[in-house]
Structures are given as C-alpha cells and as structure tokens.
C-alpha cells in the first residue's frame, strides 16, 4: 500500500453515502464510508483503475483524475493539496526551508505584540522564536519547544491545556500536511519516527491520514502562576520562509484572561 493509497482509503472511510449524494444509507455495509466502486463512479473513472490507485499499483494519475477524486471525496483545500502532492502533482515546489532560521524582521514583529502570546513555528511545529509573554505561557514545559512532543510526551500537558485532545488532533493533522509539503525535511521525519515509537496516541492519529492547516483556534491554558487563560489564536503564513508560521494568541478585551496574561509580562511592560 502506498501513501497515496492509504490516504485515499482513509478519506473514503470518512464519507457517508448520504454526504456523497448516494441513496441507500449505511444499511448492509460492513465497513464505514464509501465503497471503492462508489468513489470510482463519483470521480468518473473505472472501478479497476481506482482500485489500482488504492493498492499502489497505479502511481501516476493525471491532474484531472486527482481533481475528480478529490471532489468525490469532499476533500478540504488542504487535503486536496496533500492529495496532489502524494500523486506527485505538486501545486508548488516542496522547498526545504532552512532549519531554525527566523528573519530579524520577523523577530521584531513578535515584539510588536506586547499584550499577546506570539511565536513562530517551524515546519516540524517546533517554536523557533517567541515573545516574552509566549515564553512565560509555555514555561511549565521547561526548555521543550516542540509542540508535538509537548502534547504527546510531556507530563504537564493535561494539567496546562484544557481540551488537549483536540489540540493533539489539530497538531497531527498540521504535521502530516507539512510532511507532504516538505517530504525531505529531516526534522519532520525524525519527529514522526520518534513519536510513533513512544506514543500510541500519536500513532493512531498519524495513521488516520487526516490533514488540515493551523488556522483560527481557541485555546485554554491553566498556568501555575497566572491561572486560567483563554486565548484566540490567529495563524499567518510567512511568505519568505516556507513552512514557518506566525501564531498570535489574544484574550478578549477586558476579560479575566487579559488580566491573567498581563501578569505574565516582564516587569515594566504591558
């Protein structure tokens, strides 16, 4: 089974017949999701051809075929991009970004958010740079700055993060998306190998083959010094550094979270 085949198989297992406009429901089906033959009909290809794609016996589908399959499976834009990459039809070059290199101008941007938690993530979702508040917010994790390691291996995860199960899923989906975008990035490969060996929870989520970008998110921290802090995060792609993302977490104005977050700021700064 190829990576392309695995992705197709898991994707069709998540689509109910009714979602795809097929009559009959799930009655009499032994496994969840669509059958291979149904995906083939919806995509306008032969059942044999689609079966060869899932089985890894056909590795060079055309762009129109991949596009039709993506539409048949109701894939998100990020998942469609991932599908194209797995089919060796990259929508843009997979450039390997320089490791842990954050431009000085971007470091200045971090400091432009004195009342928010701002940091830069690399392709392997490790924190490459952070402002003072973000550093204080992440202080319960010591010097660890790999978000996947924090979420799946650090003993403080369940204490600091409320809703950590959702954060785990979002992190794995984003990591798999980056693994498709940067297939030769050494940090991603070694991290996946490490976590699949040490965390059954990571392995289960990784094997689901779901992909999604980090976008707007709501996170709740329970900081040992500042208490409960609720933040809304926005994510921004760094255009001149492929794979890097700027994340900015802000509290609701006038809320207890704003006061708690401000208490983490260095003395003399707000």
TrEMBL record:
<dbReference type="Pfam" id="PF17765">
    <property type="entry name" value="MLTR_LBD"/>
</dbReference>
<dbReference type="InterPro" id="IPR001387">
    <property type="entry name" value="Cro/C1-type_HTH"/>
</dbReference>
<feature type="domain" description="HTH cro/C1-type">
    <location>
        <begin position="33"/>
        <end position="80"/>
    </location>
</feature>
<protein>
    <submittedName>
        <fullName>Transcriptional regulator with XRE-family HTH domain</fullName>
    </submittedName>
</protein>
<dbReference type="InterPro" id="IPR041413">
    <property type="entry name" value="MLTR_LBD"/>
</dbReference>
<dbReference type="InterPro" id="IPR010982">
    <property type="entry name" value="Lambda_DNA-bd_dom_sf"/>
</dbReference>
<feature type="region of interest" description="Disordered">
    <location>
        <begin position="250"/>
        <end position="270"/>
    </location>
</feature>
<dbReference type="Pfam" id="PF13560">
    <property type="entry name" value="HTH_31"/>
</dbReference>
